Automatic annotation (TrEMBL):
Pfam families: Glyco_hydro_31_3rd
UniProt keyword Cytoplasm present: no
GO molecular function: alpha-glucosidase activity
PANTHER family (UniProt xref): ALPHA-GLUCOSIDASE, BCDNA.GH04962
Region Disordered: start-end pairs: 15-101
Species: Prymnesium polylepis
Keyword Protein biosynthesis recorded: no
Keywords noted in UniProt: Glycoprotein, Glycosidase, Hydrolase, Signal
Gene Ontology terms describing biological process: N-glycan processing
UniProt domain Glycosyl hydrolase family 31 C-terminal: residue ranges: 96-178
Protein known as: Glycosyl hydrolase family 31 C-terminal domain-containing protein
Biased composition (Basic and acidic residues): 31-91
Gene3D superfamilies attached to this UniProt entry: Golgi alpha-mannosidase II
Domain of life: Eukaryota
């Protein structure tokens, strides 16, 4: 379906224009233009690329549904609210956004990932506004796909980045630790005990924090949930597990191994020491340094996401 991004509050509002069977559109539009209209193919590709960062939504706008005040007033008010909450639209007075050129399309996915949809046809680059935590502070962001580090100054928060046909420009905030699972699956149940990868993105002070909430996947149960806290400071990554209501009912993912740890923004190869909560040193763990991406990767640290441990960079 190509209606996927249409109702998303996070997405640029201009995406609320479904094609192919919606709002009086022709179901055959896709077949009619596919492969014959480069602009149509480019638009379709960009439209679907943006959907990587949004939940699937479908419009249901049959003729027998009457318009109501929500469509005319509250929807506009919601748009304004979202523009204020995220890095959308016009800047506020006395805010660091003031005077900065912005596209009005980029949005935050959670607290750490910034996405810039591509809406122009045949564009080779796009501008992205990368803010900081405070007006005078440097803004540090990492390209989510290439790990390239971007640092913006108070008077220059906008950067130009190249556009690639296979992905949407997205950035990870400096100071964040992002847990993710990299194995593609055909069902969510298959991911329950999949290994985790941690992406450590240091800020201007070379520190970062993050959290991961784990539950039993089939409903909320406070006694069977767990929150994992990550922190990186002074070259040491620590994994601390919050209080668990019932240790005998730990969520399935608590036993998931940590498969990789990527330290972004590194300048040289470094040795690593992995310690368990007891202080025991884990033997046989090595790190590889990729100078092209300035990334230090620890592979198979032999620890689990649901236990305490630390990784020291030397």
């Amino acid at each position: 379906t190509y209606a996927s991004a249409s109702c998303s509050c996070e997405a640029a509002r201009k995406y609320d224009d479904d094609y192919g069977g919606y709002r009086g559109g022709d179901d055959d539009d896709y077949e009619r233009y596919r492969g014959t209209d480069d602009d149509f193919d480019d638009y379709r590709s960009r439209y679907n690329d943006d959907d990587d960062y949004n939940f699937k939504h479908d419009d249901d706008r049959e003729d027998d549904y009457k318009d109501n005040d929500f469509d005319d007033h509250h929807d506009k008010k919601a748009t304004t609210d979202y523009n204020d909450e995220y890095y959308h639209g016009e800047a506020k007075d006395d805010d660091q956004d003031e005077g900065q050129a912005q596209t009005g399309e980029q949005f935050m996915l959670g607290p750490h990932i910034l996405v810039q949809p591509v809406t122009a046809i045949d564009a080779s680059s796009t501008s992205v506004y990368l803010p900081a935590a405070a007006r005078e502070a440097p803004g540090v962001w990492y390209d989510l796909h290439t790990a390239e580090r971007h640092e913006t100054a108070p008077d220059a928060r906008v950067v130009s980045v190249p556009i690639h046909p296979d992905r949407v420009p997205a950035f990870l905030r400096g100071g964040a630790i992002l847990p993710r699972r990299d194995r593609p699956r055909r069902s969510s149940r298959s991911t329950y005990t999949d290994p985790f990868t941690l992406v450590v993105a240091p800020d201007a002070t070379a520190s970062a924090t993050g959290e991961l909430f784990l539950d039993k996947y089939d409903g909320f149960d406070a006694e069977a949930s767990m929150t994992v806290h990550f922190s990186f400071d002074s070259g040491v990554l620590k994994n601390r597990v919050g209080a668990l209501g019932d240790a005998a009912r730990a969520p399935p993912a608590s036993t998931s191994p940590v498969e990789r740890i990527h330290f972004l923004g590194q300048t040289t190869a470094r040795k690593v020491i992995v310690r368990r909560a007891s202080g025991e040193v884990v033997a046989g763990v090595e790190a590889n340094f990729d100078a092209a991406t300035a990334t230090l990767t620890v592979r198979q640290p032999k620890v689990k996401i649901g236990e305490g441990w630390s990784v020291e960079l030397q």
